[in-house]
Amino acid sequence: xxxxxxxxxxxxxxxxxxxxxxxxxxxxxxxxxxxxxxxxxxxxxxxxxxxxxxxxxxxxxxxxxxxxxxxxxxxxxxxxxxxxxxxxxxxxxxxxxxxxxxxxxxxxxxxxxxxxxxxxxxxxxxxxxxxxxxxxxxxxxxxxxxxxxxxxxxxxxxxxxxxxxxxxxxxxxxxxxxxxxxxxxxxxxxxxxxxxxxxxxxxxxxxxxxxxxxxxxxxxxxxxxxxxxxxxxxxxxxxxxxxxxxxxxxxxxxxxxxxxxxxxxxxxxxxxxxxxxxxxxxxxxxxxxxxxxxxxxxxxxxxxxxxxxxxxxxxxxxxxxxxxxxxxxxxxxxxxxxxxxxxxxxxxxxxxxxxxxxxxxxxxxxxxxxxxxxxxxxxxxxxxxxxxxxxxxxxxxxxxxxxxxxxxxxxxxxxxxxxxxxxxxxxxxxxxxxxxxx
Length: 438
Hints:
Elements lengths: L17 H20 L3 H17 L1 H17 L4 H7 L3 H16 L7 E6 L5 E8 L2 E6 L4 H12 L3 E5 L5 H17 L7 E3 L6 H6 L8 E5 L2 H10 L12 E5 L5 H13 L8 E7 H17 L3 E4 L1 H7 L6 E4 L13 E7 L2 H11 L4 E5 L3 H10 L4 E4 L19 E2 L7 E2 L6 E8 L7
Parallel strand pairs: 3-4, 3-6, 4-5, 7-8, 7-12, 8-11, 9-10, 9-11, 12-13
Antiparallel strand pairs: 1-2, 2-16, 14-15
Helix pairs in contact: 2-5, 2-7, 3-7, 5-6, 6-7, 10-11
């Protein structure tokens, strides 16, 4: 059934100062995290399944709230890709619901003991997986992140404080209420998932500076936001700055497969961080591949920013939008129907280019040479490295994580799509039978 979407009583009063509001959210999250850490597998799974059902039951109502955000975004002149990120279509909501169900069906990691070893002293030493505690999530645009973050937090036994962008405030509020309904109906604290109700930017400054309550911050948004949080946070940050992803066409390669994958990696959706922004082509493959992919991109209105060699090969493609690439283009994350194209000597040059210019997010090789594929996997320094498939698969749902909290390009704790395991920590456990140290 549709539920009334009204503000939960657990939220701080609007009249309070932003600092007081954030302090209260922190206190409530800390208390809720202790209850979530000991919640049973059955209860957590029931809450996730209930959330999936609520998303489906309230799809029409959520469209109404989402429309308010979309109308405001269009009136404010937001770009097409940015408006696209705001949409809570029935398809997007169904994917969110499926993610909740996928998480519910996955094994519960909390309490798992790994690596138990017998020591010469007689003690046994291992590690137990436990929740992180409380994480703060700061994100822009995509309101479906509210569900992804909440469901992962629930499954991993954490509590979270979510601060979405002002452009999606109505959608985020409506989604957060459904999450809290699913929690309370299953005997879990509503405060385990709290949405910052104010759009005041001061709230972010407080959230990232509350180590007494928040154990880690996960920013998900533009480069400016993430740089600011990384600079100012007083708690650890799991981050990625941008998604300058590459597809490299090797020699030898399969032409039909390469065209299909390179098309998908760029044009299936322009706004995600895992869309390919750079196309590298081995010189021996360029004459056959570039006219074929160029015709596809031209038909879809994709602007091609080319090195001199690739531009010369593409010059006869009907309708092609060709622009001379600058040095900055090799670094660029366009999030738009634009792609940089460069002809390289071969796999060595491709790896060197990617490691220098990429954001270390996701990079793919399309090849028929097994040794080249193995070298690419070993030597490309990115969070996800792929062979003969689209960079668009770099996603927690597609990787079988149920959902993702974000994609980390850090090299510690969590790297790549951050799912349930990335929201846990390990502590040592020691079992003995009266042993003492000599």
